[in-house]
Amino acid sequence: MTTDDARRDRVIAECLAKRGSAEDYPFGDGVAVFKVAGRMFALVSLGDAPGSVSLKCDPDLADELRARHAAITPGYHLNKRHWNTVVLDGSVPDDELLELIDQSYDLVMARLPKARRAELTG
Questions:
Q1: Quick one: pLDDT at residue 1?
Q2: What is the pLDDT of residue 118?
Q3: DSSP string, 60-76
Q4: In the chain, what's the furthest Cα-to-Cα distance?
Q5: Could you list the residue range(s) of the whole structural domain that residue 101 is in?
Q6: What angle do CA 36, 76, 82 make, to 5 degrees?
Q7: Which residues cross the membrane (predicted)?
Q8: What pTM does this model have?
Q9: 31-36 β-sheet, strand order
Q10: Alpha helices, DSSP H only, in 1-122?
Q11: 23: helix, coil or strand?
Q12: What's the CATH number where 60 sits?
């Protein structure tokens, strides 16, 4: 990923590629919200570059990530213990960012009822 817009586009594409993912705009046109089974796993700001993505995160890992990366802060307007906001300025390596998206999705999937998880995973 080379530009901020390309990075944001890649984040959106990765979120949409998740099985059962749905894109929604409950907070207006400025934020794309990605849900699985009606539960949020990512919020992507669509304003000026570089933009950001907020992702669900294990609380212990969230603290570690915040200590390691200046671009990762407690979730903006979200539960600060369970959500991180990542500025898409390129300072967080792309592979790590994609892994954080996977982890957020997996955390939400793990909380779904077993039957609903089975429907989504086929």
A1: 42
A2: 86
A3: HHHHHHHHH-TTEEEPT
A4: 41
A5: 4-121
A6: 55
A7: none
A8: 0.93
A9: 21-24, 31-36, 39-45, 52-56, 83-87, 72-74
A10: 4-17, 59-68, 94-110, 114-121
A11: strand
A12: 3.90.1150.30
């919020």: which residue's tokens?
43
Enter the tokens of residue 11.
């984040």
Altogether, the residues listed in the chain come to a count of 122
- Cα distances from 59 to residues 24, 27, 62, 81, in angstroms, run 26, 25, 5, 5
Q: List the one residue out of 63, 58, 108, 68 whose CA is nearest residue 92.
A: 68
Specify the residue for token string 């967080």: 92
Q: Is the dihedral of CA 50, 77, 69, 7 positive or negative?
A: negative
- Residue 66 tokens, joined: 């915040």
**Tokens in use for 113?**
């009822």
In total, how many domains does the chain have? Answer: 1
pLDDT given for residue 77 in this prediction = 85
